[in-house]
TrEMBL record, chains A, B:
Protein name according to UniProt: HD domain-containing protein
Superkingdom of origin: Bacteria
Keywords: Hydrolase, Metal-binding
Keyword Cell wall biogenesis/degradation: no
UniProt cross-references to Pfam families, sorted A to Z: HD_3
Length: 195, 195
């Protein structure tokens, strides 16, 4: 019993480091870069508010748990900006090693179930994972639209890139939300080209 | 449909401000104060890892949702440090007004259900709310133990105060965790008295 709690709290203490992993995106007020812990909180709120948009068969409670743990690997592997030039195979290997180390801080039964849930999210094949991935991709475009471009400017992103890297996964899980968002993106990028 | 999404995203954008509400507690590495958004993420992770400690009848999925939204009122009302001198009636009124304004950004059906879930958490009477409150109280003592006192030093907290303000709610929802934590707290405060 005591050993089990010792292991659980060792994991929970280690998880504190996610608050120091910075993402490419900024807060909406522009004051600083966003970290992966507060990002994880925010996209869980997205998932709760937009739960009515989930495809039949999606279990929002499982989606919330996926989003809760999905970025913990970044404690060891860092954040790979979606619009950066990333060696995806190398990054996947780094993240898998991070998942092994970090989840194994937990008692073995929990280590296995957390690792499996993270693996399911990464594979993006199950209905829950497809939905979770589209929620995950949605927050940055919303913030960038409000802040006049945000991380799109830093990475010189075009509408075509955005449609490929963000549009494809968002449309897969949240087609109506993408239909709502796309005209706003088109307007923004058209104004930028003129301007 | 479009109006509904407009309202939902207005709420989700406003929620971004929780990332700028600072708490009395610091990150475990001591680098800065913690904000309420990343705190909310962290205690949801606590709730997931410690779900086996929940009393019979507690629904962890509801607990996670409570913890996800429990601090949003701080966007308007600010964070009231647990060991600070706070006018609790004035704070409760401020938080209720904040809940009204913030949740009403959502479509009315969601505004009602979020407001009700937040009210249930605040009342701390239902099994889910009792459990959520004890999880919420647990993170700061864990961080303060690791960091050599943390916010206990800033507020000159004694073991007796800690037992009253943290021990009572934690013991209510997580008696075995409190039994695990109390000897560590006693050792810490005894060492501090010896000095």
């Amino acid at each position: 019993m005591t050993e089990r709690l010792d292991a659980q709290f060792a994991f929970l203490r280690e998880a504190d480091k996610l608050k120091s992993i910075l993402r490419a995106s900024c807060l909406i007020d522009g004051s600083r870069h966003e970290n992966s812990a507060e990002h994880s909180w925010h996209i869980m709120l997205y998932a709760l508010v937009l739960s009515e948009q989930a495809a039949p068969g999606v279990d929002i409670n499982r989606v919330l748990k996926m989003l809760l743990i999905h970025d913990i690997v970044e404690i060891d592997a860092g954040d790979a900006p979606i619009h950066g030039n990333v060696d995806h195979a190398a990054m996947a290997a780094k993240e898998a090693a991070a998942a092994d180390r970090l989840f194994r801080l937990l008692p073995s039964d929990q280590a296995e179930s957390f690792r499996a849930l993270w693996g399911e999210f990464e594979a993006a094949e199950s209905p829950d994972a497809i939905h979770a991935k589209s929620i995950d991709r949605l927050q940055t475009p919303i913030a960038n639209l409000v802040t006049g471009g945000g991380s799109w400017k830093d990475y010189d992103v075009t509408l075509e890139q955005l449609e490929a890297r963000v549009g494809v996964p968002v449309k897969r899980g949240l087609p109506k939300v993408w239909a709502w968002l796309l005209p706003k993106l088109q307007t923004f990028f058209a104004a930028r080209e003129r301007g």
